[in-house]
Design goal:
8 helices, mainly alpha, elongated
């Protein structure tokens, strides 16, 4: 990528430019997400067959797997944003990271809840301390810890650096989530889509699942864009509030100085 292209991308990523182009893009992304969700739900309930062992319970998979994918995806995006904060100090990096955290936490919670509901008829219990389940629970706790850290540190710059460092430390959990079913003996089934030799799921189940994964991905992008826009506006309001408070303080002190 040449210097001109890099410069163009840098300008687009500035908060002001981002607010302009994202405002035009967001309705299209949200519309596509709704369309994919509608198609995915139709395929889930009317195209995909019940499993020969699990019966209708298998339909939880069409929520559980996309949620798990997005939980990991958003943390990966946060790790990239953390590098942008620490190395390049990009003004939009911390915004992107802070906007992604609650969305990633929500997807992780959905993954844990649907996994528990799916596990009850299959394993006879809502929860086991399985390697995959435990590593996903750790991911949820990391998300919660990052959100708490943002609220704890008042200085925005210190908070951004601290959260970025903790995010990169927590990224070690991502390969554990991915490969836990291969490294340890677990109740959780191994990878059935992204694996050597191709997917093991029958096409009648695979195609609806892929549509739902695409729907969750586009929905996540739409939510992230909106969350970033909200965060930028929140920071602008905070800055204006501080400036107005300083102006009022100066106005009150001026007569005393005179």
């Amino acid at each position: 990528m040449g210097p001109k292209a890099m410069g163009r991308l840098t300008r687009l990523a500035q908060p002001g430019h981002f607010m302009r182009w994202s405002g035009s893009l967001l309705p299209w992304v949200a519309g596509l997400a709704l369309l994919l969700l509608a198609v995915g739900q139709y395929m889930t309930w009317f195209v995909a067959p019940p499993d020969y062992q699990q019966g209708e319970t298998v339909r939880i998979m069409y929520i559980h797997v996309p949620a798990a994918w997005m939980a990991v995806f958003f943390y990966g995006a946060m790790a990239v944003s953390a590098l942008g904060t620490l190395i390049w100090r990009h003004p939009l990096a911390d915004v992107a990271q802070r906007a992604a955290a609650p969305i990633g936490a929500a997807f992780t919670l959905i993954c844990l809840v649907t996994g528990s509901l799916w596990g009850k008829p299959m394993w006879g219990t809502y929860w086991v301390w399985d390697a995959r389940l435990t590593s996903m629970l750790v991911l949820f706790l990391i998300y919660c810890g990052l959100l708490a850290l943002w609220r704890t540190i008042e200085d925005p710059n210190r908070a951004a650096r601290a959260v970025a460092i903790l995010t990169l430390v927590g990224a070690v959990n991502l390969p554990i989530i991915k490969f836990s079913v291969n490294w340890w003996s677990t109740l959780h089934q191994p990878a059935s889509i992204l694996r050597m030799g191709g997917p093991t799921i029958h096409p009648t189940m695979l195609h609806p699942l892929l549509v739902m994964i695409a729907a969750a991905s586009v929905l996540g992008i739409a939510l992230h864009i909106q969350a970033m826009r909200t965060e930028i506006l929140r920071r602008r309001v905070r800055t204006l509030t501080i400036l107005e408070a300083e102006r009022l303080d100066a106005a009150l002190l001026a007569p005393q100085a005179a």
